[in-house]
Each structure stands twice: as C-alpha cells, then as structure tokens.
Write a structure and sequence with these properties.
Elements lengths: L13 E2 L5 E3 L8 H10 L2 E2 L2 H8 L13 H17 L7 H18 L1 H10 L5 H19 L4 H13 L5 H8 L7 H20 L5 H8 L21 H15 L11 H11 L6 H11 L7 E4 L4 E6 L8 E6 L5 E9 L5 E5 L10 H5 L6
Helix pairs in contact: 1-4, 3-4, 4-5, 4-6, 4-7, 5-6, 6-7, 6-11, 7-10, 9-10, 10-11, 11-12
Length: 370
C-alpha cells in the first residue's frame, strides 16, 4: 500500500489475485478509495522486469509522467475534504486517512522547499482543509529534524490532518467573521479537540496516540491552553509539534478582519510566545527548519530587485531568492536566482506589493507544476 502514492503514476502493471490486469503502468491513482479497492482485489505488481534490468545494469523504464509536489498537495486537499465531510459513512476511514498522510509526507520529503513555498504561494482552496494540510507538512519537517521514526511521523501527519474535524463545517464561517465571537462560537472553538476525538472514534479510528495528539494540540506549556489546561510534561511532544505548526500556518493566512502576518513577523511572534506557551526546544527547531525568511516570502534586495525566497541558504538569515522584478520595477523575463549572502535582503513585502504574475513552476520547474 505504501508503494502507491496518490497523484503519482504507477511504476508497474497491477494485477488482482486472480491474475486479471487492474491498472496499467503509468496510471495515476487519484484517491484513497481507489487504493482501498485495489487492496481488496489483490494488488499484485510484476516487478521482475525492473529487477532484471537493475541486475543487468540497464536503466529502469520510467513512468509516463514525472511527479509534481504541487499536484500531490492539491490532490491531498481534495481527498481530505471528501473523506472528512463524509467520515461517518466512510469504510475503513483509518486506513484512508493514513494513506493520505503518507501522500502528504511523500510530497513534503520529495521537495521540502516546494512544500513550504506552497503554504504561501498555493492558497487557492478553502481555509479549513488547506490549513490542516499545511499544518501537517510543517509538523512533518519538525518531526524529521527531531529524527522521529517513520511510523510515528505517519500518525503525526494523520493527527494534523484531522485536528480540526470538530469544527470543520463551521471553520469557513468563523474564518470570514469580522464581528466578535458569540458565546456559542467560543464554546465550539474550546470544545473542538474533544469533539474531533469523539468523531474519530465513531469513525473507527482507534489509534490512541493519534487521538491523544488531536486532543492536546491546543494545550500550552504554561497551562493556559484548552481543553484540559495541561502544562509542560503532561502534553505529548507530538501534540506540541502540531501546535507550533498550527500557530504559524494560522498567522500567515489572511482573515476578513486582519491581514495575514508577514512570515518573518509570524516567526517572531511565535518566538515571543515560546517564552511561556511553547516548548522552547521546539521553537528552536522550528526556526531552524523554516529560517528567518520562510520559503515563499516576498522580499526586496539591497540592489533594488524584488523576488521570492525559494530555498534555504547557508544560514537561517541568508536564503536563496528568485528575483522577479528588476531594480526599476520591471518584470524580469526569467526569474534570476540570488544568494542573499552576497546581495542582502532589505525588507519583507506583502504579495500585493509585488505586481508580477508567476507560477511555482517558474521557480522550481516541472516538479512544481499545477
């Protein structure tokens, strides 16, 4: 099951237990329902041809289409929406969500730069679902930096994907709300971790760590969080990882009542919170993984060029930038890669301050195509 990645072409022909051909090599599996159906019918792949080619030193035949991190992430959003909105009727929901978590992990580790960049540059989706996928991606990068086991990281991603299940249907309305929250809306927010756990249990999810991390993802180090007012060692570390990822992704998303925070300001805000609300060890790892200027941040350089951060650099404060506008504000024909160790960043900018159209593919190539 782990060899099939949603949004990527199959590397071999797939057969049922009776020997019948189910799918041809190169077919792109688009949802977890297809994976579940294949497993029920047998799911055998004839890999002898590839193995023989490797033994003979011949190149293995490639699938018909190379993978795209952006497509994989967008596919994960679509599939997550389908699963969560019909969770009470889904068969084998736990396996489906874990398969989706594996897909998100595959996208992140195929290119962490593109995955992080997409949080800021690929926001064409409803907030609730997009936010859960973004949080899962950031949480996975923190977990990898902490050298968490693969199986644990998979469940961590699943917990992040389902953390807001308890208020998912109301989240879009709350996201666009400009007036003060009502007492009922405040209760909904305070109770959504417990509601999510109840809904997951009802759907057959019985992984206790998964449920615990969902339950505790809004607790704080100083005991000011919810729903249990837990603190310090009483909060599971993986719940803390989801929490810091959740806080960052929420801050950089625009709301109807406020602009999004600039990414570097969001990081500084989390640093300040880290003195009391967030485990300082995790804050240090988080800053190291994202850098002072997270990928996808728009910046102006000292030479007057304007561009977007596209890769981590030699230090957390010197990322690589693809310049999009020249010093006189004219769009460049081709984005130019700049090392900010040589041309420093002068200021951070909002997207609307950068009057140029481009796609993620312009920065990273086909692996970032829509």
């Amino acid at each position: 099951m782990s060899d099939i990645i949603i949004g990527q072409p199959l590397l071999w022909d797939v057969y049922g237990s009776d020997g019948s051909l189910l799918l041809r090599k190169g077919f792109i599996v688009s949802n977890t329902g297809q994976v579940a159906s294949l497993i029920e019918r047998g799911l055998f792949a004839n890999t002898e041809r590839s193995d023989a080619s490797l033994r003979e030193g011949k190149p293995v035949e490639k699938a018909s289409e190379s993978p795209s991190v952006v497509r994989m992430v967008n596919s994960a959003r679509t599939e997550l929406r389908r699963i969560l909105y019909k969770l009470d009727t889904e068969a084998n929901a736990q396996a489906q969500i874990l398969a989706l978590a594996r897909q998100v992990g595959s996208a992140v580790f195929m290119s962490p730069d593109i995955a992080l960049g997409g949080i800021l540059l690929n926001q064409e989706d409803t907030y609730g679902i997009r936010h859960s996928v973004d949080t899962a991606m950031v949480a996975l990068l923190i977990a990898r930096a902490l050298k968490k086991p693969q199986d644990e990281m998979l469940v961590l991603a699943a917990a992040a994907l389902t953390m807001n299940l308890g208020m998912l249907r109301q989240q879009e309305r709350l996201q666009d709300k400009s007036e003060a929250l009502t007492a009922g809306e405040k209760d909904l927010i305070m109770q959504h971790p417990e509601a999510a756990v109840s809904m997951l249990r009802a759907a057959g999810i019985d992984h206790e760590d998964w449920l615990s991390w969902v339950l505790h993802h809004h607790e704080s180090e100083d005991g000011s969080g919810y729903p249990g007012k837990k603190n310090g060692v009483d909060i599971p570390q993986n719940a803390k990882i989801i929490s810091v990822a959740d806080r960052y992704c929420a801050r950089i998303c625009p709301r109807s009542y406020r602009k999004s925070m600039l990414p570097n300001v969001a990081l500084r805000d989390i640093l300040i919170e880290g003195k009391s609300k967030i485990d300082p060890t995790l804050v240090a790892v988080f800053i190291r993984e994202l850098g002072a200027y997270p990928i996808g941040t728009f910046v102006k350089l000292e030479n007057g060029e304007v561009g977007v951060v596209s890769a981590k650099g030699a230090t957390t404060t010197t990322p690589f930038v693809h310049a999009l506008l020249g010093p006189r504000g004219v769009a460049l024909t081709v984005p130019l890669k700049r090392d900010t160790q040589k041309i420093a960043i002068r200021e951070v900018m909002y997207r609307e301050q950068v009057p140029v159209k481009f796609t993620m593919r312009h920065l990273w190539g086909d692996i970032a195509r829509v």
